[in-house]
Amino acid sequence: MAVPKRKTSPSRRNMRRAHDALGTNAYVEDKDTGELRRPHHIDLKSGTYRGRQVIEAKED
Q: Cα–Cα distance between 24 and 36 in angstroms, integer?
């Protein structure tokens, strides 16, 4: 069984984890309503996805 010869220092360990942080969420402007929404997600206000009515519109 392979065993490390030296302990990994906290600095080296943290450098390895540098790319694990979450990025900010992307938002796009809806072409019909002009509101921001997540890409590839249903617009909950109008209930549309890719120009088709998918669910009933959410009431305010």
A: 14
